Amino acid sequence: xxxxxxxxxxxxxxxxxxxxxxxxxxxxxxxxxxxxxxxxxxxxxxxxxxxxxxxxxxxxxxxxxxxxxxxxxxxxxxxxxxxxxxxxxxxxxxxxxxxxxxxxxxxxxxxxxxxxxxxxxxxxxxxxxxxxxxxxxxxxxxxxxxxxxxxxxxxxxxxxxxxxxxxxxxxxxxxxxxxxxxxxxxxxxxxxxxxxxxxxxxxxxxxxxxxxxxxxxxxxxxxxxxxxxxxxxxxxxxxxxxxxxx
Amino acid sequence: xxxxxxxxxxxxxxxxxxxxxxxxxxxxxxxxxxxxxxxxxxxxxxxxxxxxxxxxxxxxxxxxxxxxxxxxxxxxxxxxxxxxxxxxxxxxxxxxxxxxxxxxxxxxxxxxxxxxxxxxxxxxxxxxxxxxxxxxxxxxxxxxxxxxxxxxxxxxxxxxxxxxxxxxxxxxxxxxxxxxxxxxxxxxxxxxxxxxxxxxxxxxxxxxxxxxxxxxxxxxxxxxxxxxxxxxxxxxxxxxxxxxxxxxxxxxxxxxxxxxxxxxxxxxxxxxxxxxxxxxxxxxxxxxxxxxxxxxxxxxxxxxxxxxxxxxxxxxxxxxxxxxxxxxxxxxxxxxxxxxxxxxxxxxxxxxxxxxxxxxxxxxxxxxxxxxxxx
Lengths: 246, 375
Known about the structure:
heterodimer; A: alpha/beta; B: mainly alpha; two-stranded antiparallel sheet
């Protein structure tokens, strides 16, 4: 065991004989910004599924802060430990307003009983307003989230992670489907966020990965192929072979 | 914003609708000369009372189907369980006036040669006990059923199917004489409720008023839940359940709570229904009954509380008329209604009316349009 924030050791997940993760070991330190790249089917999304409790590994250990065994907890419990996740496809609550989406994500008690009697206080209202400003959706607070453009939904989802006070954020392809300008803004937002929390970004877009300038882990066939700075990884012969070269 | 849900405008409308329900029927029945064209004959009073019970039942289904996206096709079972609890109380009130004149045992038990009252009939001679059971039996049953289903993440069509299986199983069970609930014939031949003769017009007015109050209460409970933060959690999980879990909410608990509340309301509806129709038998558990409730809700407007009430009353008015005038047509009309609403106006009758002002608002072009849905 280590005192790393996120510790995966020998994690294997197989679906009908196909090994989505094959003896994967990965350590993310507290406060780190990490990008994970890899070709399709390399196990990036499965890795996130394992960390967030959606998928149970067949073998291996997954620990958060060295003590919480994530293989034994469900999604709700893991989320309440402070691990947030943004999905590949933006999933906001389309029939609720932008404001209500943030209200549900706002840090606070998650108990069903509490939800039944909860009242939004002015501090909460202020936080929502501040977050709306930050993600550029203040004008659209009253719109149903389903009416937002693709890029705006991505931002709303990031806003929902922001307002929740998570110590670890997992972002699955946060700039998928964004325009160049939106991608730049998102990179700036992530770098800003990374100052006071740990972030793991899974991404295909190499320009975006470069702009984050963080430590890169390359996954291939469910295991780590290489790790290092963007330059080191890009010059790694096997990485060029399986991924960048194509 | 959530406070607007309980503003003056709401209470004004609620009181007006409530007063109309409470005053109109008794007034036309008791306050108008019987030969007047406006007079409401005595036999229609329990019929209206019955519609109000159906409206409560529709509300209870709408709460979980319209808001949480859980289509229960077994809600008739909770209604029937509540009805049986009330029926047991009414049976015990018969006393020595039964055919066999046994002061303790209902007629069917004497007929089956039973010597003493089964333990689960104990206490039902007291109204307070029966009233508690009306709420507790469906509630506890739904809690256990829901806990098993939601914990195992049974959702969507699979949940609908197991709720159908649940009501079917209860139907078969209640048919058995050994169950101790009167078998095929069920419980009937009631005499008094709280000392009043159930056949008297004044008692029927009283039962009608109780149903109207029950409907008002059920509406307020549903409105409170759907307008609370929990209501927004429910709507969120209806659209993207796993996302709600990743936000840290226990969707199992949220669904379980609302499923239980919904079953309690259905039980209340059943308890108000039984003294007005004078019988409860296993046919109330039939699978078709539970499906009909879903049709009321979808015709009226799923996901709007008013819609559930409107749908239940209108579809049952049509049923009363058609099963009298063209009995062979009714099932075709019912099926046709369901297909038509699903295809042509998925928001139901209420949605049809709401589209008009909303379109006008859009033409006035003043975005952003509030997405607040009314209930």
